[in-house]
Amino acid sequence: MINWIPLNSLDQLQEILNSDQVCAIFKHSTTCGISGMAKRNLERFANLTDKSYDVYYLDLLAFREISHQIASIWHVEHQSPQLLIIKGKTCIFNASHGDIDFDDVVNHIK
Question: What are the structural domains of the chain?
Fold first, then answer.
């Protein structure tokens, strides 16, 4: 099971940016069926790893400004749904729609 960390402030983005820890950000549209399917797939496979990781959950409809800042800070085109693997100032991986796969989280979290 994923222990989602709600991403709901710009201060949290600054903390992620200043951290050396690898984490994931899942940008989710609560009204999109594809986004819901991607979220369920992430949750279904999350228990298959013993690695420790943080996964931030961004509700795109409630926090559009944060989504825009993510695109700006990490130089990624906005997509929904979207999974980003972040290490400080670098987005080391991003995927959207049907390309979102929990294996990508496992492969990038060290």
Answer: 4-108 (3.40.30.10)
